[in-house]
Amino acid sequence: MERTSPLGTLDSSTQGWINGFIGVVIFSGSLPATRLAVMEFDPVFLTMVRATLAALLGLFLLGLFKEKRPTRQQWAPLVIVALGVVIGFPLLTALALQHVTSAHSIVFIGLLPLATAVFGVLRGGERPRPVFWLFSILGSLLVMGYAVAQGLSAAPAGDVLMLLAVLVCGL
User: Fold this and answer.
1) Is the pTM of this model over 0.85?
2) Which 3 state secondary structure label does DSSP give 97?
3) Vertex 67, ends 62 and 73: CA angle to 5°?
4) How far apart are CA 155 and CA 158, in angstroms?
5) 110-146 pLDDT, tens per residue?
């Protein structure tokens, strides 16, 4: 059964750009919303509610599209990803946002592509081209330079938690 895109007959490259843009727009509100939420809710409670809602939505969509269950070989990587992206990143950012502003914390997200690439090499055997590494490192240096130019945080605990969040999400 062939699936059709809700975007019609756009080629896969155009669909990829549109989906990427939608993802960036949605994600851009994540840290400000989390900052507001941790003013009223415990970070652990907030993380568990987010994970539960994501799991329920995921189960619904998997059932709706009648997707196959993961194979035995897929379970370990799936658990690692879930622990990093569903639990680790949201929990660590929620904890960090008790100490720093969302504007400050969003700068750390600029390090996420490099962290993801490093783990892709270490865990998945990916071999990006040298130009990829050049621009990833250059981008990360620009992010760090911007952070330093803005002044180091008065709350190093928030910075450490954000760095840990980037690492577990990259993993």
Assistant:
1) no
2) coil
3) 105
4) 6
5) 888 889 889 989 988 888 899 988 988 898 888 888 7
Q: Can you tell me whether residue 65 is helix, strand or coil?
A: coil
Q: Give the span between the Cα atoms of 165 and 152, in whole angstroms.
A: 18
Residue 143's CB: how many other CB atoms inside 10 A? 18
Rounded to an integer, what distance in angstroms lies between the CA atom of residue 44 and that of residue 48? 6
Selection from 14, 13, 15 nearest residue 5 by Cα: 15
**Coarse DSSP helix, strand, coil percentages of the chain, rounded to the nearest 5 percent:** 75, 0, 25
Q: What are phi and psi of 5, to 5 degrees?
A: -80, 145
Mean pLDDT of the chain: 88
The tokens for 86 are 């569903």
